[in-house]
Design a protein that fits this description.
Elements lengths: L3 H8 L9 E2 L26 E6 L16 H10 L4 E3 L5 E3 L2 E6 L5 E6 L12 H12 L14 E10 L2 E6 L7 H4 L23 E7 L3 E6 L12 E6 L3 H9 L5 E2 L4 H7 L6 E15 L9 H10 L2 H8 L4 E3 L22 H10 L6 E6 L6 H13 L4 E6 L5 H7 L3 E7 L3 H8 L14 H11 L4 H18 L2 E13 L3 E2 L1 E2 L16 E2 L1
Parallel strand pairs: 1-20, 2-11, 2-12, 15-16, 15-17
Antiparallel strand pairs: 3-4, 5-6, 6-8, 7-8, 9-10, 10-11, 12-18, 13-17, 13-18, 14-18, 19-21
Helix pairs in contact: 7-9, 8-10, 13-14
Length: 520
């Protein structure tokens, strides 16, 4: 084991000074135990083995970071690899392997300077590795999730200026280009890599062993560019049922259990056997109204439904109180969020008046839902009762959870919806432009598209923020997202685990930061 003092010095006491991590955690399991003699409980300590339980993807799991889809994929990829950037707690991009980025005056060419970092086999991370990784992701023959995120880049025209500088040529001005560098699944692998049986990355841990659908073991990377992790060894174990993850945590077989439902968390919170960590703002919860078809092609009907919702009742009933109310806008607490707009409250009289004005008295609608996410079916039932008070009959139709997201994209009129954390710019570009591929509300407005393009051609952040506020005001008044809440993401750890932040949403930089976690 490395000398504790030198290891902490290399890490710069990041945890002790408040730059703590979020997400998965675990306490000491089998293997080496941390040296706790004479160490204050809040002081980071080196050593130990941590075991973290996640839901998995079965025997076909892979360590190819570009094939990342599940939470366990993302956590394993973060341990083994790095991206050029990642998202901070406010969903603004922050540098990782990229030391800095600079656009030209037109915001159509960006130069990215790499920091000094090495892969696990000692090779330096270079501009050619970056271009190879992005071109592999964007290959039209592939199906990698991050392909859509890289669409703005002209990768044929992009080039390595020198080993530490990449020049990205874009297809159009893009002020928020750093969001691309931070996009889900955009990890950097060594140029020429095609096999991932024994992966080589630049992340804080290096590969030891992998059994798909069962276990991944990694060890501390002492040469990590941000400083070596505290843990000696980290093991990801698969337990797809929540009850199995919680039982393993309570029984001491693991020290971290990912993704607890609110009821389970409430049962165990404060009992002393496990610690429950709530990651705020991790999942937007709401309903989508399709604005291109009756009855929601009339904005008065959409506004009536905004006013039917009792948001606190929905959060309390569908999420067991594990979250906060929404205001029909995505990204509460994120960069550019329009927090000056008044918080909506239930107003059944005004909702009835709007429906009467729209000629929609006695309205009947079908609400599609499925057990595809925590609280979906429960929220549908609660909203059905709320709508009845405004004279609206809601028929709840429970569909197939395995095909739900595909089914609601184009069919139906009204459906349950959830989204994980992403920048507000990404939410708009992926879901609210005329050409967006996941536009579940069918919101298609040329003037709105023009505002987005104007924002992306605006270099000044304050002016760009004003344009985002105009877009959000429009969505607040007549959009198709009824966003009633933001759910906490819940994880649990053994009591001896330290270094887990509760201030960042899931899938941001400080989520799954095993390199920031230590054992007391």
């Amino acid at each position: 084991m490395n000398d504790v003092r030198s290891l902490l010095a290399r890490r710069g006491f990041l945890l002790a000074t408040g730059a703590t991590a979020l997400a998965l955690t675990a306490a000491c399991g089998t293997g080496a135990t941390p040296d706790t003699e004479n160490a204050p409980d809040g002081t980071p300590q080196a050593g130990g083995r941590l075991r973290a339980a996640f839901a998995g993807g079965g025997a076909n799991e892979t360590l190819d970071p570009h094939a990342t889809n599940l939470f366990v994929d993302a956590a394993r990829a973060k341990a083994l690899y790095d991206k050029l950037a990642d998202f901070g707690a406010d969903l603004a991009a922050v540098p990782r392997l990229a030391e800095k980025w600079e656009p030209d005056d037109a915001l159509a060419t960006w130069r990215v300077t790499l920091r000094k970092a090495t892969f696990h086999d000692g090779r330096p991370v270079t501009a050619e590795d970056v271009l190879y990784s992005y071109r592999r992701i964007a290959d039209p023959r592939g199906t990698f999730r991050a392909k859509a995120s890289l669409e703005p880049i002209d990768l044929d025209a992009s080039r390595a200026l020198n080993p530490s500088t990449v020049e990205f040529r874009l297809k159009r001005p893009y002020a928020e280009f750093p969001n691309v560098l931070a996009a889900f699944g955009t990890y950097i692998v060594p140029a020429g890599t095609t096999a991932f049986g024994k992966p080589v990355g630049s992340g804080p841990f290096s590969f030891v062993s992998f059994t798909p659908g069962s276990s991944l073991v990694v060890k501390r990377n002492d040469a990590y560019w941000e400083g070596a992790p505290y843990l000696d060894t980290l093991e990801f174990v698969i337990a797809s049922e929540e009850s199995a993850r919680v039982s393993a945590l309570l029984g001491g077989q693991v020290e971290y259990a990912h993704e607890l439902n609110p009821a389970t968390a409430r049962t165990h919170e404060g009992q002393g056997r496990i610690d429950v960590i709530r990651l705020p703002g991790s999942a937007m919860q709401g309903f989508v109204m399709k604005t291109d078809r009756p009855p929601f092609d009339d904005p008065r009907v959409r506004r009536a439904f905004f006013l039917i919702a009792d948001r606190k009742e929905l959060v309390d009933g569908a999420l067991s109180g594990a979250g906060e109310i929404g205001n029909d806008l995505f990204g509460k607490g994120y960069q550019y969020y329009a927090d000056t707009l008044p918080q909506r409250a239930q107003d059944l009289a005004k909702a009835r008046a709007l429906l009467k004005e729209a000629g929609a008295e006695g309205l009947r609608v079908t609400l599609d839902t499925a057990p595809a996410a925590t609280g979906f079916v429960e929220a549908a039932g609660i909203f059905k009762e709320q709508a009845a008070k405004a004279g609206v009959t809601v028929e709840v139709r429970v569909g197939n959870k395995d095909t739900y997201w595909k089914d609601i994209l184009s069919s139906g009129t009204f459906a349950s919806y959830r989204s994980g954390a992403m920048p507000i710019e990404s939410h708009i570009s992926q879901r609210l432009l005329t050409g967006s591929t996941t536009n579940a509300t069918r919101w298609q407005r040329k003037d709105f598209d023009d505002l987005y393009r104007q924002a992306q051609a605006t270099r000044d952040e304050k002016r760009r923020g004003a344009l985002y506020e105009r877009m959000q005001r429009r969505l607040y008044d007549e959009g198709g997202f009824l966003i009633w809440g933001f759910a906490d993401w819940i994880v649990a750890t053994a009591p001896r685990v330290r270094g887990v932040s509760d201030q960042a949403p899931a899938n941001t930089l400080d989520w799954a930061r095993f390199d920031r976690i230590w054992l007391a």
